[in-house]
């Protein structure tokens, strides 16, 4: 049995200042996870997982990509192999993930949730599988128990406008002490070039019980859905886009473009961009009216492997970083809303590390003194939520903005075992500041620097979202 000795109390903390910052100002802070893809149904029903595969591997395309790279057959990833066989395939893969964040996350999660201080590999797999599964039978390891174990105070799932929010309503009426909110994700109503657009508008028509025959109808239905989400506690939206669109348009043009699409006619690339611009502006103005925070996750190149997309569907591990042009369109979009005094609190997330400076400098253009940290450069996400990605985002924000008002980390995850990523982030954050304190590049003043650490870890998000 090989002990997991590398994840000690001082993991990622390389000097005394870093250790003091983490232990005194970050470690015990509650978690506000303001963006994830957890299932509200599983939280509302307080699901008890049968085994670790169900809670840890199912749906986790980070692990799936690693297994595929090791030549693991799809049967043992998303196929019809048993849950135990899938776990064994993952365990066999883990030793080969050295220097990938999966190696850190895997052992951090096993230790924090289940007290397993052992490296996961082919030899230890059976023992760990059985030990974890025994714990998962206990009530304190249900969905809600796992969240409480990590000190989660608030979490925010992500739902489409057609969602009934019935599980959020159940949670709001329950005695569950963790606040569970939602984010409005209307991308399917924005992406008019998607082959599923018309079918989605039909679905939205059914849910709203209102015919959507014109673009004005679409605006009215989306506004009603925003009102419905707001009544059910929603205070933020989220958009996952390649890039922000911005083209000059008239309302007459957009009405005609929408009509053409609904009639099955071809629309040009320019018409697509005009429509996306118009509907994003409409939504942005509405978010501001309701006092919401708007989030834009930008830069993913999705569904690259068309053969596997047809076989397994989207969000199964075939996405990567895109190299879209971002700066000018973001500027035009934010400037349009700002010029009408309708710019909501905004978080911009960047997926291409080459654009970190672009995003970090862009936010300063629209932080106008009306709200502290009104426009945020969001944390490293997806391919950039690892140690170097976190450091690069923090460095860019520090150099070109004020990292002291940064609202910190989120999981962006589908797994109930992902919350140690907040600890991971906090350790990287404290080490970054601690090393500069030791070098004399920052004052060796624990209380002064610690206040900023506490704010980034928790206080800034608490103030910014006002859940």
UniProtKB/TrEMBL annotation:
Domain of life, source organism: Bacteria
InterPro entries given in the database record: Metal_Hydrolase, Uronate_isomerase
Range of residues in the leader sequence: none
Catalytic function, reaction form: aldehydo-D-galacturonate = keto-D-tagaturonate; D-glucuronate = D-fructuronate
Keywords: Isomerase
Enzyme class: isomerase
Pathway, per record: Carbohydrate metabolism; pentose and glucuronate interconversion
SUPFAM superfamilies: Metallo-dependent hydrolases (SSF51556)
GO molecular function, one term: glucuronate isomerase activity
UniProt key word Electron transport: no
Entry EC number(s): 5.3.1.12
Protein's UniProt keywords contain Isomerase: yes
Family per record: Belongs to the metallo-dependent hydrolases superfamily. Uronate isomerase family.
PANTHER family assigned to the protein according to its UniProt record, in alphabetical order: URONATE ISOMERASE
NCBIfam families: PRK02925.1
Protein name: Uronate isomerase
Organism of this sequence: Salinimicrobium oceani
């Amino acid at each position: 049995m090989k002990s997991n000795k590398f994840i000690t109390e001082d993991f990622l903390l390389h000097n005394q200042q870093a250790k003091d910052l983490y232990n005194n100002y970050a470690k015990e802070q509650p978690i506000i996870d303001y963006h994830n893809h957890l299932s509200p149904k599983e939280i509302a029903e307080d699901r008890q997982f049968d085994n670790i595969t169900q809670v840890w591997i199912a749906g986790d395309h980070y692990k799936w990509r690693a297994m595929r790279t090791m030549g693991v057959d799809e049967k043992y990833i998303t196929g019809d192999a048993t849950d135990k066989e899938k776990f064994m395939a993952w365990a066999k893969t883990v030793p080969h993930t050295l220097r990938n964040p999966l190696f850190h996350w895997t052992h951090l999660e096993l230790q924090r949730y289940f007290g397993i201080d052992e490296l996961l590999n082919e030899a230890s797999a059976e023992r760990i599988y059985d030990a974890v599964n025994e714990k998962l039978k206990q009530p304190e390891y249900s969905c809600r128990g796992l969240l409480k174990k990590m000190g989660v105070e608030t979490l925010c799932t992500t739902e489409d406008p057609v969602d009934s929010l019935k599980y959020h309503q159940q949670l709001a009426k329950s005695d569950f002490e963790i606040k569970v909110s939602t984010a409005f994700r209307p991308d399917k109503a924005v992406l008019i070039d998607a082959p599923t657009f018309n079918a989605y508008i039909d679905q939205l028509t059914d849910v709203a019980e209102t015919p959507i025959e014109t673009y004005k109808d679409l605006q009215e239905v989306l506004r009603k859905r925003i009102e419905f989400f707001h009544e059910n506690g929603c205070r933020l939206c989220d958009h996952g886009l390649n890039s922000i669109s911005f083209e000059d348009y008239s309302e007459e043009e957009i009405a005609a473009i929408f009509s053409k699409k609904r009639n099955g006619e071809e629309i040009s690339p320019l018409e697509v961009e005009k429509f996306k611009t118009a509907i994003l502006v409409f939504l942005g103005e509405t978010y501001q009216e309701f006092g919401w925070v708007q989030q834009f996750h930008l830069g993913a190149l999705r569904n690259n492997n068309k053969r596997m997309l047809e076989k397994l569907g989207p969000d199964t591990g075939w996405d990567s970083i895109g190299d879209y042009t971002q700066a000018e369109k973001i500027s035009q979009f934010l400037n349009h809303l700002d010029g009408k005094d309708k710019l909501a609190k905004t978080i911009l997330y960047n997926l291409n590390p080459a654009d970190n400076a672009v995003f970090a400098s862009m936010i300063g253009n629209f932080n106008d003194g009306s709200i502290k940290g009104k426009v945020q450069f969001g944390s490293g996400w997806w391919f950039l939520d690892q140690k170097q990605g976190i450091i690069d985002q923090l460095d860019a924000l520090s150099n070109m903005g004020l990292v002291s008002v940064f609202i910190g980390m989120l999981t962006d995850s589908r797994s109930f075992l992902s919350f140690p990523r907040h600890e991971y982030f906090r350790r990287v954050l404290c080490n970054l500041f601690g090393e500069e304190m030791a070098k004399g590049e920052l004052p060796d003043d624990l209380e002064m620097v610690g206040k900023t650490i506490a704010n980034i870890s928790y206080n800034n998000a608490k103030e910014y979202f006002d859940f």
